């Protein structure tokens, strides 16, 4: 560790910064989601996104109420599907373990 107690900062290429920002801009995902996924702080990614949006010729269009409602519905559906998937994974593991250890029958 540095005797002065300072940490060495990570350095990111301009291309990496732009690509990370466009993961938010192009997909409509939240900064928090993308930041977690790629291992950055929300504040850092937020600055990169703001910079890219400012550099764009025309700002991203705001979504209307119908699109917002559809987005919220789809997010709820994704959450439900993830819960279902986890349940099915556990059920599959349970049944697989039962098949590998069949109960003994007494005569």
TrEMBL record:
Regions that span the bilayer: none
Gene3D superfamilies documented for this protein: Homeodomain-like
UniProt keyword list: Coiled coil
Signal peptide range: none
InterPro entries tied to this protein: Homeodomain-like_sf (IPR009057), RD_transcriptional_regulator (IPR051839), Transposase_8 (IPR002514)
GO MF annotations, alphabetized: DNA binding; transposase activity
Phylogenetic lineage: Bacteria, Bacillati, Actinomycetota, Actinomycetes, Mycobacteriales
Protein name (database record): Transposase
GO biological-process terms attached to the record: DNA transposition
Stretches assigned to coiled coil: 64-91
Protein's UniProt keywords contain Coiled coil: yes
């Amino acid at each position: 560790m540095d005797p002065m107690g300072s940490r060495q900062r990570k350095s990111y290429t301009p291309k990496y910064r732009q690509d990370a920002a466009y993961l938010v801009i192009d997909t409509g995902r939240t900064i928090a989601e993308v930041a977690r996924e790629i291992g950055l702080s929300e504040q850092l990614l937020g600055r990169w996104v703001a910079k890219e949006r400012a550099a764009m010729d025309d700002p991203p269009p705001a979504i209307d109420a119908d699109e917002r409602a559809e987005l919220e519905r789809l997010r709820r559906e994704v959450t439900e599907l993830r819960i279902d998937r986890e349940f099915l994974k556990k059920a599959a593991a349970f049944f697989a373990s039962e098949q590998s250890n069949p109960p003994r029958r007494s005569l």
